[in-house]
Amino acid sequence: MDPLVIAGKAYSSRLLVGTGKYKDFEQTRQAIEASGAEIVTVAIRRTNIGQDPSQPSLLDAVPPSQYTYLPNTAGCYTADDAIRTLRLARELLDGHDLVKLEVLGDPQSLYPNVVETIKAAEVLVKDGFKVMVYTSDDPIIAKQLEDIGCVAVMPLASLIGSGMGILNPWNLQIIIDRIKVPVVVDAGVGTASDAAIAMELGCAAVLMNTAIAGAQDPVRMAGAMKKAVEAGREAWLAGRMPKKMYQASPSSPTTGIIGS
Would you say the pTM of this structure is higher than 0.70? Predict the structure, then answer.
């Protein structure tokens, strides 16, 4: 597959995965391996990556020497909280600067607060972070985040953890058509077909966590998502046939029919 390029670095996988909600770090490791993902996102407020030396660390199960860590600000509801969290992550990960910014609006819907998100993005970009940003599917906001200097824009497909799939493909298509940085569908994917559809629309990648971790067999689902993302990307590159309303078209040639 053609590489995914984010902040000047190329990745062979277009599937990004989370590290939360698994039964233990061993299952996390197995699922990530099955997914083929190279970028793994980590909730700094919820996952031990050295903050507590007395507890098991994700760094041992998913070594940063093999994966690109993407610290995120899950659980942050203000720009200030998100900025503090990512500065802490940079210290814990020895100056790592590729991060995922998300500022939530409320604990029920987990919908992004785009006003606080823009405030945080402005500060973080100036502070030298390479910001991948979770946002709504508003094309205007997506363009503003690109103009601020975010290295990827990550609109939701539907609410975080809902598994509802892509509810508004039209807005996603507008975002894909209008901005130049990678568009990564983030949140709402429930099964393999959702991931394939996102890629068929022209998204650069898909990020998911609950769709894999919440499956009855997370490791098998991780493998399914790997195949779905690859198939969707190949289909987009191939260019689908045009849709024809109320017009049938024979699959076989109509000229040279035997007996005619």
Answer: yes
State the catalytic residues: 100
| pLDDT exceeds cutoff 80 at 157 | yes
Q: What percentage of the chain has pLDDT greater than the value 90?
A: 71
Given a cut of 70, whether residue 255 has pLDDT beyond it is no
* Residues 6 or more apart whose Cβ sits within 8 Å of residue 217: none
Per the prediction, the chain carries an average pLDDT of 91
Q: Which residues contact 36 (CB under 8 A, 6 or more apart)?
A: 13, 15, 226
SS3 readout for the chain: CCCEEECCEEECCCEEEECCCCCCHHHHHHHHHHHCCCEEEEECCCCCCCCCCCCCCHHHHCCCCCCEEEEECCCCCCHHHHHHHHHHHHHHCCCCCEEEECCECCCCCCCECHHHHHHHHHHHHHCCCEEEEEECCCHHHHHHHHHHCCCEEEECCCCCCCCCCCCCHHHHHHHHHHCCCCEEEECCCCCHHHHHHHHHHCCCEEEECHHHHCCCCHHHHHHHHHHHHHHHHHHHHHCCCCCCCCCCCCCCCCCCCCCC
